[in-house]
Amino acid sequence: MRKVGFFDIYVDDMDRAQGFYEALLDTTLAAMDDPNDPSVVMRVFEDDFSSHGAGGALVKMAHATPGPGGSMVYFSCEDCAVEESRAVEAGGSVVRPKFPIGDHGFVSLVMDTEGNMIGLHSTATPS
C-alpha cells in the first residue's frame, strides 16, 4: 500500500496553474469532476492508482486557498535541475536551486503561480 494515496494542490486560477504544472513537468492534466460538489474545479495528474507514489490534482474550491507553509508536495524527477529550469518560464520562481540531501539525492524548491511551494526530487548527479 502506498504511504500517500492522493494529494490536492489548491489554486485560485485553474488555467494559470494548469499551464504552470503542464510546462514544469512536461505533462498533461485531465479534468476531474467532484460528484458531490459541481462548483469544485479539478485537474488531475495521471495515475493508475496501483503504482508506488501518489496521484493528485489541482483543486479550486471555495473553502481551500493556496499558499506556503502547509504540506509540501515533492514531484519525482530524473534530474530536478531540468524541471527547476522550467519554473520561471512557466510563471513561477525558484526558491532554492538544486541542492544535495545526502544519500537521498537532490531537491529543488520552487513556487508555483498560485503561491504554493513545491519540491522537485531526484537521485541524479548535480548538473
SSE layout and pairing:
Elements lengths: L5 E5 L3 H12 L4 E3 L8 E5 L9 E6 L13 E3 L3 H8 L5 E8 L5 E6 L5 E6 L5
Parallel strand pairs: 1-4, 5-8
Antiparallel strand pairs: 2-3, 3-4, 6-7, 7-8
Helix pairs in contact: 1-2
CATH structural fold name: 2,3-Dihydroxybiphenyl 1,2-Dioxygenase, domain 1
* The CATH homology group name: 2,3-Dihydroxybiphenyl 1,2-Dioxygenase, domain 1
Give the SSE string: EHEEEEHEEE
What is the CA-CA span between the terminal residues? 34 Å
* Secondary-structure arrangement, i.e. CATH architecture: Roll
The radius of gyration over CA amounts to 15 Å
H/I helix tally: 2
Strand order of the largest sheet: 1-4-3-2
Which geometry do the CA atoms define? globular
Proportion in β-strands: 25-35%
Task: Report the structural category.
Answer: alpha/beta
Q: Largest sheet at a glance?
A: 4 strands, mixed
The level of helicity is 10-25%
Count of domains: 1
Low-confidence stretches: none
CATH class: Alpha Beta
Instruction: State mean pLDDT (0 to 100 scale).
Output: 87
Number of distinct beta strands? 8
3D architecture notes:
This protein has one domain (6-122): 2,3-Dihydroxybiphenyl 1,2-Dioxygenase, domain 1 (Roll), CATH 3.10.180.10. The chain has 2 helices and 8 strands; from the N terminus they run E-H-E-E-E-E-H-E-E-E. Helix 1 (14-25) packs antiparallel against helix 2. The protein has 127 residues and is an alpha/beta fold. The radius of gyration is 15 Å and the shape is globular. The chain has helices at 14-25, 80-87; strands at residues 6-10, 30-32, 41-45, 55-60, 74-76, 93-100, 106-111, 117-122. The strands form 2 sheets. Strands 1-4-3-2 form a 4-stranded mixed β-sheet, covered by helices on one side. Helix content is 16%, strand content 33%. The mean pLDDT is 87.
